[in-house]
Design brief:
The chain has a domain of 134 residues: Protein of unknown function (DUF541), domain 2 (Alpha-Beta Plaits, 2-Layer Sandwich), CATH 3.30.70.2970. 35% of the residues lie in helices and 37% in strands. A hairpin with a 6-residue loop joins strand 3 and strand 4.
Length: 243
């Protein structure tokens, strides 16, 4: 009796395993068509981040730091006085770098270099207005003692609508490719079993102004700016079960 019970139990487990296996066939064992779609959309930049630097140097750390603080204060006050709506300021860097005389034995400190970095952020502007504000901010900063413009990065504040548009286009392309493949192969599309996406980041190249120090001249203070466009690129992968 005990033997019969054990055999019956094993048979039940075996049948249940078969049923579960039939219902959940691994993806690699299905008949599938795999396709992908890619789409890229562009949009006009409405925001900018301007990285401004004040660099001072000299023998006395106290004097160099005080001079840097004074100039940076003037730059910030001048930029704020433009009264540009939604303008934001943020300190991004502050460094004190000893200048050493390596000819001396042992090397000794001969002076100091102080760096103070500030980011000016403007968001949510029409392209022409953004370009104009960017040029004016740079001019005002240079006029008041800034001697480094590290970078200018234009971007789109809210990319959601453009990303959604790119996703829709890429998905349509993947579906059309699957339909074309199925028709050519003489099979029918049954259902989508996998759909995934990931963005392909192509960050805009920032406009760079690198130098050991910009000698600010009145005629070159307000360089013309073009806010340009940003590109958003996405890819969609699609798996269709076929019959």
């Amino acid at each position: 009796m005990r033997k019969i019970f054990i055999m019956t139990l094993l048979a039940g487990v075996f049948l249940n395993t078969l049923v579960v296996s039939a219902k959940s066939v691994p993806a690699e064992e299905r008949n599938l068509i795999l396709t992908d779609g890619t789409a890229e959309v562009t949009g006009k930049n409405d925001s900018v981040r301007i990285s401004i630097g004040v660099v001072t140097e000299g023998r006395s750390l106290e004097m160099v730091s005080a001079a840097n603080m004074d100039i940076t204060g003037k730059v910030l006050l001048a930029v704020k006085s433009l009264n540009i709506e939604h303008l934001a300021l943020k300190t991004t860097d502050y460094r004190v770098i000893p200048q050493r005389d390596y000819k001396a034995k042992p090397p000794k400190i001969k002076g100091y270099e102080v760096h103070n970095g500030v980011a000016v952020i403007l968001e949510g502007f029409a392209p022409d207005q953004l370009s104009m504000h960017t040029s004016i901010v740079i001019a005002k900063a240079l006029e008041n003692g800034a001697n480094n413009i590290h970078s200018i990065k234009f971007y789109i504040k809210d990319r959601t609508l453009l990303e959604n548009e790119a996703l829709a286009r890429a998905t349509r392309q993947a579906v059309i490719r699957a339909e074309t493949l199925a028709k050519a192969a003489g099979v029918k599309l049954k259902r989508i079993v996998s759909l995934s996406t990931y963005p392909v980041h192509k960050p805009p190249m920032p406009t760079m102004f690198r130098s050991a120090g910009i000698q600010a001249k009145t005629e070159a203070m307000a360089p013309p700016m073009e806010s340009g466009e940003s590109r958003i690129r996405v890819q969609v992968s699609l798996a269709y079960e076929i019959e």
